[in-house]
Fold these 2 entries.
Entry 1:
Amino acid sequence: MKLYNTMSRSIEEFVPIVPGHVSMYCCGPTVYNYAHIGNLRTYIFEDVLKRTLENAGYSVKHVMNITDVGHLTGDGDDGEDKMEKSARETGKSVWDIAEFYTKAFFRDEEALHIIRPDIVCKATDHIQDMIALIKRLEEGGHTYTAGGNVYFSIDSIPDYGKLARLNIDDLKSGARIEIDSNKKNPKDFVLWFTNSKFAGQAMTWDSPWGRGYPGWHIECSAMSMKYLGEHFDIHCGGIDAIPVHHTNEIAQSEAATGKTWVNYWCHGEFLLMGNAKMSKSTGGFVTLPVLEGKGYNALDYRYFCLSGHYRSQLRFSFEALDSAKAARQGLMDRVASLKEEGKPSENPGEAALGYMKDFDEAMENDLGAPQALSVLWKLVKDSAVGASDKLAALYHMDKILGLGLSEAEKAAVTVGTEEDLKLLQERGEAKKNKDYKRADEIREELRKRGFNVKDTPSGAILEPIV
Ligand code: AMP
Ligand code: ZN
């Protein structure tokens, strides 16, 4: 297995700390709003990484946090707590906001066939672990208190910014006007806020430094080390986490333990909306329920994500999503036909095994999903491979792709919007009433909408015109 490591900026052979086992931490959602489909692209990438490692024979321990406190609207300790802001705007309690959006997040994940991490840990359930880690940093001389807050001093370690390759001298001389005058170095960051920051903060806890709440970065260090130990294999997130969040996670974790914290840093590129990163703060974002409301299946979006490499930017458009939808439905239809011909073979022949090997190799080469999909389509179109062998190979591939191929049913394949399906039903009734003129009119209308009507033993279905 080969993986691109952001730390070395190169593709490396993956060697786990404990042979056969992988420890993997992924930064989870901040539950103050719905996840947008850009956020979900990152979780799909992490799910595909985990599935690929498992397919390669590793057992994976996957931990993800839920940020329900401490994440400010600005990355440099500026702005206000995202949860508090959402609560103020909606008139709900922060706890209700967290519960509501956590549920919404896991509904989206389930619809996208993202396997739930082995451990999902909420920041607010781990405040004592964070306090213990801050104490450890304090004992090691890495912190200072100013204006009631506890700060991490980046000058207390020799290699701050190594992940992002930040040039500290440039940062100092070119630093923008400092917002927090308590900071000795503009890149120092808060480990613990006391109520000196915001009066009326709803979520606060007692601590040796006064009643307050933790900074955002400390939660990931404290929880990952609690569940995976002080040295683990893989840490993932979106690329926007590199310059501040992951940089600060590394600084405080390695300052506390005095050793390397994580071996492989894996980052997913952005989903773009137009020419910019899709983002909640700039307003232009789309959620999964919005796509579903327009007649797309969540798995159309999963397929769309798989069609691009995780380290390349992917531009969202409804035209591109339409192509992904047509491709996925075409695939489901092929699988449904194969299922009518036979069962997946238990001992696939050489040709099918060859396709499986090519597929695995593409995925194990830094998750080459677009190449792996082209292997899949080559197999689908290869008339020399029998139905049972094809099915076996496709099911094997789907362990990583997660498209639910084994559930493909001819009649159950839903193509088109609710209105298209209503027309299809109307055509069925017209035919039953021997109103062939009307039936033909509807067939023509559906053709204009992009579908052929195909009569099958289990009823008429829509087939996208590709
Ligand atoms: P958040 O809930 O804001 O903490 O973000 C959750 C995850 O989504 C993080 O790993 C981000 O790096 C990632 N992310 C944010 N915006 C995008 C985007 N436009 N495309 C892909 N990933 C993103
Ligand atoms: Zn994190």
Entry 2:
Amino acid sequence: MTSWIKPEQWMIDVVAEALGIDRSRVEYLASHKTIRFRVFRGILYAMLKRDLGEYYEGTVVIFGRGWSRVVPGYPHIQRVVLPSVALPRHFIDKIVVEEKLNGYNVRVVLVDNNIYAITRGGFICPYTTNRITRMLGEKLKSMFRELDPEDYFVAGEVIGLENPYTRYYYPEAPRFGYFVFDLFYRGTPMPPSKRDEVTESYGVPHVPVLGIIDKNDIEGFKEIVKRLNNDGREGVVLRDPEYRVPPLKYTTTYTNIEDIRIGMRFFMEEGRSFLFSRVIREIFRAYEEDLGPNKIEQLATEIGLAILEPAIDTVRSVARGVSVYEEFELEFSNEDELNEFIEYMSEMGIDIVVLRKTKRNGMILAKLGKMKETAIQVKKILESGLAPID
Ligand code: ATP
Ligand code: MG
């Protein structure tokens, strides 16, 4: 069974109308798979695989009986590398400094009294939908119902270890947590103070606000970042209190280097794309903080080890015949949920193997493994002795 749908004419019409685009253009984009159609538990939806006019990649159109709903893709946030230059230039007066949590971006909507969790790319993820529904379903439902579900949706970060995508340990949400960072009204994000007021009144968690500073208070900004860095946390998102200018993001050196270490375990995959961007961030940090020779040497050692150690470990493991999966544990309420998830991942082109199943509070706790291309490539290199790239 596949959840991909070949669009019929009426579906093309609905998307054209919902997004305000010509029918023929939608038809063209659908035939090139830039717009794709899927079903999830009986709900039909269309998704954008790239930016289209004012709509970002990951935009979703949900089909109902005689109605449709657009959930716009989440916008890209520009990155700061030189705070002393970017902050005074970009902001107007004050800056709301909030924590950037390291997980994955999930938009939540209420449709027909069901919660749906949409990933950045525009997929309704069965696993995320189940966990958010179990944890926060009633709170989110009453929030949307009272606000008006047709006009509102939230975007937030899923964090913790029990998810298929990004795993960082957070003491406040060791397994699974959802923290709202934007409350959208008719496609526009509300000011952070409004977001916090509304979510708090329904008991829905939001990202921590770490302070409100003046745009010229670079010292104050650096104090906050230093504390996050010492605590091993990802970084900050900076917002205008009234959303008059778009937000910016900044990550700690701890995270820049940790990302390299995690990415280089599977160096033919994440490693490639991670490395250069993180090195750039550290180059400009070294410049901004005017690091002396000793500090630079220390940084070089740290980055060097983060690149080499995990990669060498992987080669040695493959050589010893240890299978190098990316491993993680997920919670399911029954076998059907587990099977639905495995099928979903397989449609994304990701092979999942079930390594072990145990029980936890009446739930299934499954240890799963994601097959990695790096392991296959390393095996080939070990057998041939030849480099995969020149
Ligand atoms: P981008 O969103 O800039 O296109 P990206 O997907 O590579 O890029 P990140 O570098 O992780 O993402 O930074 C942006 C993401 O940070 C957001 O999409 C969101 O998932 C996440 N995030 C975590 N905390 C916050 C927060 N407080 N406000 C906004 N986004 C946050
Ligand atoms: Mg992120």
